[in-house]
């Protein structure tokens, strides 16, 4: 991963033309250092519609996208159950792969993806890339500068009534590999790991409030479906660097709440929603009567900046930040939380996340740097 390759913009193909693909296509089309060459989907007509809407020259099935020589990165936007299969196929075709979260359904599958990539000299990246946005990058710089002293602890909460009220096909979000922990958890856990480094042990509890839910919008509104995973998870995370975190992931609350607060020896930071790229970022010191805003600086370009960072890394030989190794640690962390909830005790983690450098101050997604 240290040697750069190729020149000029990096060719990209998207596999999966579902809801999230619009956000990726919107952002990637504004980055001159990448060129979206293809959209693929099991539903070829859906792929064609997305390609036409965003000016992408090719649309078809997965095999046709993988056969395009100029495609260097495959962006895997399939459902979680297909992540490992599509990633492996892309690597076998000689493409780097960047996938939606989670990296795979199980750590063993994630490890196979990373091993396959290493053997082929290819890269793996994974969402979320929200930790590269202005809000969380500003938070990382604030923590690194010592603004709140030495970090001691954090509280992370994401809760709400669940996505079945607005998502037209939410069933997969309540199946193995999803639920609030695997679907929303990666945003919070990746942000925390990027701040503090790897987690070494966890203790957790989990429950499922309802065995069935009802789709609330779209053509399937009123359809009942089964819930296969816990819908409320609470975890205690111990980081190798010292801080501990209390984290709650829930689809069972009537009150939406999304927050991360980091407490240090000199004050507390209130971080932005880690499922976004912006602020606000606030601080409250000992003796302060209220929060005050901190400057938020960096990119707000949206989903796909991790793909862009990977593309630039391919050309320069530099490591990319939303890496497969980071995603694998978060995947193992979520699997260990699940294991701990079943065992009713602390469980140790084996993997260690790589250190994540903040983006340079002059990092500009819409500047052409690859010529």
Total helical elements? 10
The geometry reads as globular
Question: Can you tell me the number of structural domains?
Answer: 2
Largest β-sheet summary: 9 strands, mixed
What's the β-strand tally? 17
**What's the CATH H-level superfamily name of the largest domain?**
Dihydrodipicolinate Reductase, domain 2
Which residue ranges are poorly predicted, with pLDDT under 50 across at least 5 consecutive positions? none
N/C terminus separation: 20 Å
CATH architecture name of the largest domain: 2-Layer Sandwich
| Strand order in space, largest sheet | 16-15-14-13-7-12-11-8-17
Q: Which range best describes the helical content: under 10%, 10-25%, 25-40%, 40-55%, 55-70% or over 70%?
A: 25-40%
CATH fold assignment of the largest domain? Dihydrodipicolinate Reductase, domain 2
Q: Which CATH class of the largest domain applies here?
A: Alpha Beta
SSE order, one letter for each helix or strand = EHEHEHEHEHEHEHHEEEEEEEEEHHE
Q: Mean of the pLDDT scores?
A: 96
What is the gyration radius calculated from CA atoms? 20 Å
Secondary-structure content class: alpha/beta
Strand content: 15-25%
Domain Gfo/Idh/MocA-like oxidoreductase N-terminal: 11-124
GO molecular function: nucleotide binding; oxidoreductase activity
Keywords: Oxidoreductase
Domain GFO/IDH/MocA-like oxidoreductase: 137-269
């Amino acid at each position: 991963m240290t040697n750069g390759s190729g020149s000029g913009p990096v060719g990209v193909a998207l596999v999966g033309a579902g809801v999230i693909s619009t956000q990726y296509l919107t952002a990637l089309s504004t980055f001159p250092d990448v060129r979206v060459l293809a959209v693929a989907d099991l539903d070829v007509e859906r792929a064609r519609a997305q390609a036409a809407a965003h000016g992408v020259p090719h649309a078809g099935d997965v095999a046709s996208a993988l056969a395009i020589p100029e495609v260097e990165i495959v962006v895997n936007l399939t459902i979680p159950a297909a992540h490992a299969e599509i990633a492996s196929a892309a690597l076998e075709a000689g493409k780097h792969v960047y996938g939606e979260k989670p990296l795979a359904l199980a750590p063993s599958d994630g490890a196979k993806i990373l091993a396959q990539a290493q053997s082929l000299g290819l890269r793996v990246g994974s969402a979320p890339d929200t930790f590269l946005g202005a809000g969380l990058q500003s938070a990382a710089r604030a923590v690194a500068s010592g603004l709140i002293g030495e970090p001691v602890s954090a509280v992370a909460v994401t809760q709400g009534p669940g996505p079945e009220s607005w998502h037209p096909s939410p069933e997969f979000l309540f199946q193995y590999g999803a639920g609030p922990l695997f679907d929303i958890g990666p945003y919070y856990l990746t942000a925390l790991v990027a701040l503090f480094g790897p987690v070494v042990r966890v203790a957790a509890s989990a429950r499922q409030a309802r065995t069935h839910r009802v789709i609330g919008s779209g053509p399937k509104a009123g359809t009942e479906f089964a819930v296969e995973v816990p819908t409320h998870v609470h975890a205690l995370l111990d980081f190798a660097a010292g801080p501990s975190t209390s984290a709650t992931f829930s689809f069972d609350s009537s009150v939406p709440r999304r927050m991360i607060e980091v407490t240090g020896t000199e004050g507390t930071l209130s971080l932005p929603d880690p499922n976004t790229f912006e602020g606000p970022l606030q601080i409250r010191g000992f003796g302060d009567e209220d929060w005050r805003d901190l400057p938020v600086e960096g990119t707000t370009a949206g989903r796909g900046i991790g793909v862009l960072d990977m593309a630039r890394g391919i050309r320069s030989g530099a490591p990319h930040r939303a890496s497969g190794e980071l995603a694998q640690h978060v995947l193992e962390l979520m699997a260990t939380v699940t294991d701990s909830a079943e065992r009713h005790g602390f469980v140790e983690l084996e993997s260690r996340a790589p250190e994540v450098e903040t983006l340079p101050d002059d990092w500009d997604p819409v500047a052409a740097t690859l010529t």
